[in-house]
Specification:
With 332 residues, chain A is of the alpha/beta class. Chain A has helices spanning 15-18, 35-53, 74-86, 97-100, 109-119, 132-139, 156-167, 187-196, 216-224, 258-263, 268-272, 302-321, and strands spanning 64-69, 90-94, 122-127, 144-149, 176-180, 203-207, 228-232, 244-247, 279-281. Chains in contact: A-B, A-C, B-C. The A-B interface holds A 61-64, 66, 90, 92-97, 99-103, 105-107, 111-112, 114-116, 118-120, 326-329, 331-332 and B 49, 52-56, 58, 72-75, 77-79, 81-82, 85-86, 93, 95-96, 284-287, 303-304, 306-307, 310.
Chain lengths: 332, 332, 332
């Protein structure tokens, strides 16, 4: 049964993107993306790898992206800003609007967005309220990209870059994927599961301490769509047979004993039991659940994954900006 | 009698701009602006609407604006930065220098400005001390724009964009204007009154609780210059006959009863009694004094007013930059 | 005997630059710079004065500099950012990553740098740990410039711009230089002494309260290399005979009496006893040790010194960027 915190599988914001061929207006949650839209995004992302290798472009040099972070997240913000700069564009930025804003005096995000979207060609927002990005999109003149909202909220570009990282190495159809960690609360893991389910003959292994297993909303969705999955609590029983290992963090305060953390950690010994061509992903930042001894392994994809964030965000920005006239032109 | 906090009607900083034809060097207070200078600014601002509609310009692509905010004000800062970017220029920015600066160790703003103005073609400063911007201008190599100083200090670009918003809709001569709120402390309201008085046959209605009425310095000034005004405490007696309603905030802690706030608030019912072609302005952010039910009314100008901030700031930047050689060229 | 906090005179990071003709990869400490490398830097810096006078260049318009400040330092950060903008480049910036970063959750600087260096053509880092910049350089894909690390750590561009300021006015060979202040802890003073010792027939006067004198590691180094120096506690005995006065701060809490500070301060009276063509330098910010009455004296070089920071940082950026392919091109 869905909880207040879980992904709404059919939400109003998903509507527009569910009809193929419709342009993206805002990017609020990963569920908006249909397979054709994902393929368009990934093809553009591949093109962006070449754009970056050639030193970037100046094609978007008159466009302004505003990075409006109500809570700080240095790497996500810098990744979006780098993406806009590699496109030749311009960036307005606030790294901690929550601490600085007049919203503390009782103003609502809506008024700020109405004003700031008049200055911007696209807004990247990280808000502290779970529906912050959606509320912003409702009043914004410019397209809005959700860069993470609330504690358990959406962070759709993370799920997109995760999937792109796999796509760059393997056909997505027929994959077997182990998703490991605190799966009941892990929005990243949940979003990836949802996106993977759109592809054919995928099999997922959800590996976590029993009390942190994937919630019924996702499992019901997978059942309905005939997607295969298994629930596991022992990493050893799946690690040798999957194509992709998606590792995430477990907060130590949720485990009774310190040993628990170690049982779900990946180090150079665990890696030895993986397939020779397995892929190891992690959304980062990491703590003990992914040992530095793994970094040199050619199967370690997590730094490449972070770099892919640049390409996917560049691609997403162009998909939104290409559809929009320049800011101001439609004002009155 | 003037109070320490009030607008000095003839202040040293006003001097240069009072002589027509002299170039603007710094923008410290709204009183600097003569009618011809206002008209030049507003004509340039109209031009900027077209520049923005065409996607901006690259004419100023080698110029650097430094936004030096000793206290955060996200929207004012982003508005200036967007203005510089739409001109093709470059931006250096600090959003909370007060918390971050070595000035806490005893250094004065003067040394910081001498150094930073060497790197900059124009400085936009928000300082916490009431004379911060003026002190900065005294030592700066580059032009300085005051983006708000002290608590009751000047914020000249706000007054300029307020007036520009009216100018875009109505001839300024012959206007009747209701200015509502906490008028004794409201720098925005005071500055607008001062600027409006420069035009012919204007009549102002100052509407506020009696203990917060406009101070004698402004009233004496209006008397001397033969400008008509009335003091009111009842919004209903003026709302139906004015061309412009300029609403501002009243801090609840200054009113004995909660009812007081409601008596000065504007909602969809109050709007019904306004002239069909009245203009409703508000400097934003707002709380209860301006209800969201008014937003859809075509007479609501406050989001357009915020957008006009972009055009006026672009225009102001070009007026300062066009007069200056590039930074560094006159250094030694 | 070297203390944990002192400059390691022969450190691993110095190695590459000690061999002439090798390109600079990272700038971690001032000791990396040989005389030929200093001369290349200074000639480039002179060229940058002309570039700035002509309004900057767009040659580096596709390159991204990331300013990664774990502790705020507004002026150093803005100086680097202005340098990159005057080169036509682009800037990503965080002014207080220490407060904002996920590193508080246990992540190490290495992972952040690996990710961010993938987005950047050059990283300028101020870290709170003394070896922060070196650790960053070890994992960074892009060149790293140390913009100050730890409390007693290195700040190599400060020493370089100090020396450049003298170079612009005087031949460096044969100089007599008074270095005044809290010399045991003064990293700036120590680094300048080290760099000056590379030139011929230099004589240094170290002027400080006896308990704050220059530490034996530097004095031993000067002895070994036959560089002349004298230890002094009385400013009056040297002020009249030196070519350069390098003033630095003394923290009042390290002196027993308030008078002590005054005995090492420079004001207009002290300046009268200096040579007619002496140069007065100070790294700024200043407090009581350098009186504002000195500012108008033509021998006061400290604001020019700050401006030279722009030219030296521009020169350094080009030396690093010219050697590197654009980011991303060498990724896999």
């Amino acid at each position: 049964m869905p909880q207040p915190n879980v992904i709404p599988l059919q939400s109003p914001a998903s509507e527009p993107a569910l009809r193929d061929g419709m342009p993206l207006k805002h990017v609020i949650e990963s569920q908006q993306f249909t397979v054709p839209l994902l393929m368009e995004l990934f093809e553009r992302s591949r093109g962006m790898e070449h754009v970056v290798a050639r030193g970037g472009t100046l094609d978007y040099q008159n466009r302004i992206m505003t990075a409006l972070f109500y809570a700080p997240s240095t790497r996500t913000r810098l990744s979006f800003e780098a993406a806009m700069h590699r496109l030749g564009g311009r960036v307005l930025s606030t790294e901690n609007a929550g601490a600085f804003s007049s919203e503390i005096e009782g103003e609502q995000v809506e008024d700020s967005i109405r004003i700031i979207s008049g200055y911007s060609d696209v807004i990247v927002i990280r808000h502290t309220a779970e529906d912050g990005a959606r509320r912003a999109a409702e009043v914004s003149i410019a397209p809005v990209i959700n860069a993470g909202d609330g504690n358990g909220g959406q962070h759709p570009t993370q799920a997109l870059l995760d999937l792109y990282t796999i796509y760059r190495q393997r056909p997505l159809d027929g994959l077997s994927v182990a998703i490991i960690g605190e799966l009941d609360k892990g929005r990243t893991a949940r979003s990836l599961a949802y996106l993977l389910a759109k592809f054919d003959r995928v099999k997922m292994f959800f590996v976590s301490p029993p009390q942190m297993q994937m919630k019924p909303d996702i499992l019901d969705y997978l059942d309905e769509h005939g997607v295969r999955y298994e629930l596991e609590s022992d990493i050893d029983r799946v690690i040798g047979e999957v194509d992709v290992v998606y590792q995430t963090r477990i907060r130590p305060e949720r485990l009774r004993d310190a040993d628990g953390l170690r049982r779900y950690a990946i180090d150079s010994k665990v890696v030895q039991r993986m397939k020779a061509d397995a892929l190891i992903l992690h959304p980062l930042p990491r703590t003990v659940e992914l040992d530095k001894s793994v970094d040199a392994d050619p199967r370690a994809m997590y730094f490449r994954q972070a770099m892919n964030g640049l390409y996917v965000r560049m691609a997403l920005l162009t998909m939104l900006l290409d559809k929009e006239p320049a800011a101001g032109s439609a004002w009155w």
